[in-house]
What does this fold into?
Amino acid sequence: MNAPVVAEEVQKAARRVPPPMAMLAELTHRCPLKCPYCSNPLELVKRNEELSTEEWASVLKQAAAMGVLHVHFSGGEPAARRDLEELVSIAREAGLYTNLITSGVGLTEARVKDLSARGLDHVQLSLQGTDSEMADLIGGYRGGFEHKMKVAAWIKAEGLPLTVNAVMHRRNLHKTRETIALAVTLGARRIEIANTQIHGWAVKNRAALVPTRAMVDECTRVVMEERERLKGLLVIDYVPPDHHSIYPKACMGGWGRVGINIEPNGKVLPCHAAATIPHLTFETVRDKPLAWIWNESSSFNAYRGTDWMPEPCRSCERKEADFGGCRCQAMAYAGDASATDPMCHKSPFRETIRTLVEAESETGEIPGYEYRIM
Amino acid sequence: MTGTPEDRLPETATPRLPRGVRVRFDEARNTHMLLAPERAVRMDPIAAAILAETNGARTFGEIVDLLAAKYAAPRDQIAGDVRRLLVDLMDKRMLEVSP
Ligand code: SF4
Ligand code: SF4
It folds into this structure.
């Protein structure tokens, strides 16, 4: 039985924000690859601005105490940090489920063994293509594919569970079946077939990335087929591209509701792309406790819940399902972060964007990529 | 994967949570959670009790016997509940079974 509580405390409890489930720890923006779909911002955090090992240790402990369950070590390439192993240990000791999101470049057999011994729970290895020619063209890094194959074998030898992250776009979408087959060969338990989101650097390459509708339909069909065929062997998570669906995705599962992102310099964001919303100020873990930022900061409360919504979201029956979609996409296309996600069929911008994107995707040749120079 | 739930998880099979899947008590939410890659599943007390006995050494039959005795419930009913949970976890690749 619960102890009786006074009315005021009941109210306070009702207002209390549920704790985050997952934290994305972007350890560094440094990365040897140059994926044209990279969603990291145009302006990257420099090495000398990165949080120190001690600062990350504090963030990890604070997160665990708040109720975060999963920590995703990401970047950039997290293996570019020499203290990755130490941070995994600290996170495990704090009770967190530790996931490494990596391109594999920078990992050696010894490092994989060490990470495994320290209790790393899971690895997500990105795959740019199904052969070295395509993968290395897309990743902009020669030898990347071959190295990845080795990394996958080291992971398997350790018995570490592996998820393959396949980012799909115009150049590789027709290889969906081969991609899934490769994941099985590598011993993955799970694959994410994710159509690229157009954020950050990817905006520069939109015309080269967005697939045609026919390609997407075929990919969806293949995924459904393979999902049935490989049931119990490989779990297939599928993210279709936004501009072909009627409703937007629940970006981040809702603003300030499930996830929390830490940039390499300690800036705390409700979503990876949130810094593109110019009127918001984001706090850093260097100045404020993480729990305060989650519960009290103006940035996390700006689009939390449904109270901030204008029409048509306000009276829409889906508002608790998708939370009005992505604020950053609204900012980018509608010029207003509180607008309905422009990918929603109720948005006045939807048709214009769809026509634009589809026209780009139907051009015969795939335009050359613009690579990031680090 | 084909076969009836009974074929896939017979009495003599030994189920276990593979590496990367674990149950932990979550103080912040005051509940047991099953943690797996990208998944956190709230466990009701029954599911938590089943997984607490799934230690990689006991067979399915032994787990059912144990729970039937503990909760003084009909064995068939317990076997059904346990099998439903474990086969569902097998489909999600959150549970491995050795024959
Ligand atoms: S998307 Fe590619 S370039 Fe960007 S951080 Fe990830 S691996 Fe590096
Ligand atoms: S109107 Fe808003 S809440 Fe309704 S489906 Fe579109 S984005 Fe979601």
